[in-house]
Hints:
Number of strands: 5
Largest sheet: 3 strands, antiparallel
Helix content: 40-55%
Strand content: 5-15%
Amino acid sequence: FQVGQNGEMELLESTEHNNLVSFGEYSQKFSFDVGCGLPGRVYQSGIPTWEQSVQNAPANHFERCGGAIQWGVKTVVAIPVLSPNVGRIVVILYSCHDRPKDESLVSRISELFTKLLPSPRWVLVVDVAEPSPDTVSTSASTSTISTTNTAQNQTQHAMSEGRKDARIKEVLSVLGEHMPSDASSPLSPYLQGFMSLRLMLLKSSLAKPELELVETMLSSYTSYASSGRSSRDIAMLLARDCMFLMQQPNLN
């Protein structure tokens, strides 16, 4: 459905409906950290946003601009909504029309969604059972755990420092702009590389082999960019390299 000029609900045309469904399937390939991308920015601020002409937005502002161009998405409305089991979620509405901002409509939508008390379909379950006696660690294993925790803390610190590297946002932007949306795309053979590298760059902490892979990919990005390659070629090469490196034994 869509809101007509008179404020009444109207059925979408079949072409427009199919385009929005395809854009939704395309969007499922993306995930956003807090403060990143449209969903992440609205989640962090808790303030609704209404954005027009997203198909013309720079990729660092709206990462799915490539999909918006392909399926004719022009206006996006993101509404932060309180959820009874996860605190806050962001509901995003899309339109294939360039609709001017309507504050009263945003208020009505926010009020409606809040009354619905939406809950995500997934549930996080944490096992807090006490360890059985036969699994109690010896002093030697306690030492091993302490060493492991120290290594993990060092890795997390290194990743936190790495977040200061501007190249991470640049790579995320390039990957988001050129991520293949269907099997007919010339880049579709590298979809797994696109998704794996993007998710790895969004993680707050990485194991040592993953951190080494990220450092290698950032160095490759610098090399490809300095050689004057197009952003599309850079995205494809990074996805291909990621797929190759992840097949190595130390990352499995």
